[in-house]
Every structure is written in structure tokens, then in C-alpha cells.
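Much of the work behind modern protein science is quiet bookkeeping, done one molecule at a time. The protein below has been through that process, and both of its lines are reproduced in full.
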Amino acid sequence: LVPRATAGARPIDRLVDAKLAALGLPASGMASDSDFIRRASLDATGVLPTPEASRGFLADKSPNKRTLLVDRLLNSGEYVDFWSHKWADLLRSSRKSLSDKGNASLNNWIRKSVLDNKPWDQFAREVLLAVGNTGDVGPANFYRSSKSPETLAETTSQAFLGVRIQCAKCHNHPYEKWTQNQYYQMAAFFARVRTRNEDGTADPRVFVALGGEVNHPKTGSKVVPVALDSSPLASGFSGDRRTALAEWLTSAKNPFFSRIIANRLWRHFMGRGIVEPVDDIRVTNPPSNAELLDYLASDLGKNGFDLKRSMRNIMLSSAYQRSAVSVKGNEADNRYYSKYLFKRLSAEQLMDGITSATGMSEKFPGYPDGLRATQLPDAGVPSYFLDLFGRPARNLTCECERSDDPNLGQVLHLMNNGGLNARIAGKAGRVAKIIEAKLPDAKALEELTLTCFSRLPTSDEKKKALPALAAAKDKRIVMEDLLWAFMNSKEFVFNH
């Protein structure tokens, strides 16, 4: 049935359902409990729920158990790890462009910010206004990754405004209203930001010089700082120009700032941004549901840019809790959220999922055994698997640097990789522990499906697996084959 907006529904659902009703699109039903705990766990924390957590959730009859689950996930240590990693992508935290100490300093600041649920406007201000030694002041490393006023203007605009002004550097933007003048007016805010190396340290200090201007490349004249669609900086302004930029940028009234972070969060949880690409907000790239984006952005501003609150709001909506299974009439919809969109697990989620399913941890060079991929502080840590599955190199601020699109090489790697088979057969792995515990065949199969899919075995799985286990001379081999098959299935590789 085509949903109808109801007075008692959450604002998100009223706006989503109103769009579906206007388009005559039916909505899929609610996701099962097994799909929901797996989906919510991966989206909020990046890791699969444990078999014990899934078993307990499925058995729980409480009417508010989904709310309790969401609250538990958003207050977990895994949540801090996962979202620290995500914002480190945005700020391009990497030893390749920074130093070991600078990279650690930036990661520690990001992690503390996530742990404290720092308001997003404060987060952005601390980045923009950072000064000091980059080995000690984490956000100051933003000025180490981007050094010239022009690249700083581009990075700031795309990261915190969702506006790509790069095309206006040499000429007026071909697809948007931004002019070459506006490009250099943004760059002028950073004209006096400098870095210098100090004696005895490899980490430069960021400071603001007393002078420095940006000159227009065509006219050669000095450019007055002007934020996008804003007023020029007062002629008598003294001090750090970035303070004026930060005040304008982080204002709740700034439509760019609140919309881009609302769109980033929505895309992460829902699989597609209301504007796509997620960080390319412009008049010529309209949102699929303008009223919904306006609400999410306004709600963030009214509530102090509390990202965790906004995440909770999205996760408890009916739109997020819909099944990924199509119904007649919404099969082709991938824009209006009539169903949950399948998402291939990110490189880090998939690697951590494999270690969880097999019970065998990963050892990254230079890091302790057992560290999860989502806990890595540097995208440059060698890993063929993570590179193959699309982790970003953190050279660009663009969300497009990460690839979640499946390809043949990934499929062949999962099917034929000797390392995966070694994990499955590991003496300290999950299968070995099931054998050691001498679980009945039905319980052993249940353990594997709970581990991989957060659900109990289907009747078809029981019909095929249990006779094979009963007839096996070596149950270990059959269980290893089952685990291999489960991890190579779409149900495992995708969030749904």
C-alpha cells in the first residue's frame, strides 16, 4: 500500500511518506529483527553483532527493544572507533601527508571529539581556527594536508559546506553559480595562515601572520575575503580572518553547513543521500526530497548540531527500519526510500566481519594483534584486502575517494583467497571452538547463521546442512565449507 503521512508519525516519516504518496510508490514492510540488529550494528558501529547479542535480541519480547538497541549501540566503544575512523577519512588523517606524531595527534583529537559527542559546529570551528604545533594540536594538521589558500578554500568548502568550488579556480563554474571571483574571495580568508618548522621538531607550527593577501590571477588586484553568498569582510577588520569565516560557516542559519552534514548522515544510514553525490550540493543538483533535507538540517541547527541525536532520530524512523525486500510497485525505486537500500560493506566492515565470523583476528604491520580495521589510525597501513575493497587513500576530501562498488576481483578474492581458508580452518577459530564444545548439529548450524547473518537457520538451510553434518566422518570439514559458503553469500557481503 502507498503510505499516508500520519499526524503521530515522526517528522522524518511524515516527509518520506508524503513524497511516496505523491509519487504513488508503495512502501516495503518492516525489516525483521535479525535484519535490524545486523543493519543497525553495522551502520552505528561498523561491526557485526555477536551470536549472543543476536540470540538475546531475537528472543526479547519487549516492545521498545529496538530503541534500547539503538541507544546501546550509540553509546558503545565500537561507535567511537567507527565514527572516529569516518571523520579521519574526511580530514585526511594519514602519515603520508602528516608525520607519525601529527597523525596520532589528529586521530586522538578526533576520537576525543566523538567520545564527547562534540557538537559539529564546534568540531568545525576547532579545525578552522587551529593554531600551534601540529604534533600537539590535532586539528592544526588540517593546515598541513592543505597548504595554499586555494586548496584550503576548496577543502573547507567541500568538507563543511558540500560545495565543490574547484571548477571556479580558472573560470566561472560551468554547472553552478560560483564565479572565479568568489573562489579567490574564499581563498583570501586563508591568505595569512602560515606553517613553519621549529628547531628540534619535525612537526610544523601553524600560525597567523600579520600580513598576506590573495591576488586575482587575471587582474592582479588584491581580493577582499567574502564567504559564499555573504557580505565582504569589513575593511577595518583586524585579527584572524578565519574567525569571521568560522562564524559564518557554522551558523545554524547557514544552509550549506547544516545541509551537508545532514546529508552525510542520511546517506550513511539510508544508503543514498538526499543529494547525490553527497558532497555536491548545488542548484543544478536538486535533492530528491527537499522538505526532508530542510527538516534534517533545521533539526540539527535547533538542537546544537548534536550528531548522535540526529543519528538516533534516523535509526528509529520507519523509513530506516523498512525491509530491503521490494514489493510490487517499488522494485525500481532507489531514490525515495520506499525500502532499505542494499549496501556493500565497506572494506573495513568486511574485514572486521570476516575476523568476527571466523574468530581469527587480523595482524596489521606495526600494530598489536586483534586491532580491528575500523580502529586503524592510518589509511596507509599495508593491506591488499582493504585496498582491493575500496578504502580511501585519504588524498582527497571527496567522498568519492572511497569505493563501495563490488567488482569481479573482490568476488574472486573471497572465493579463492588462501588466507580466508586458513582463517576458517584456524585451530583457535570459530569452527574449531564449535567442534571442541561438541555442540549438536542443529546448535552448530545455528551458531554459524547467527554469526554471519544474525538469524536462525532457514528450513532450507536445515534441510541441506543437517543431513550433511550427520553423515560426515569429519564434521569440521562440513562446518568449514558452510562457513565459507556463508561468507561468500550476498547476505554476508551486503548490509540489508
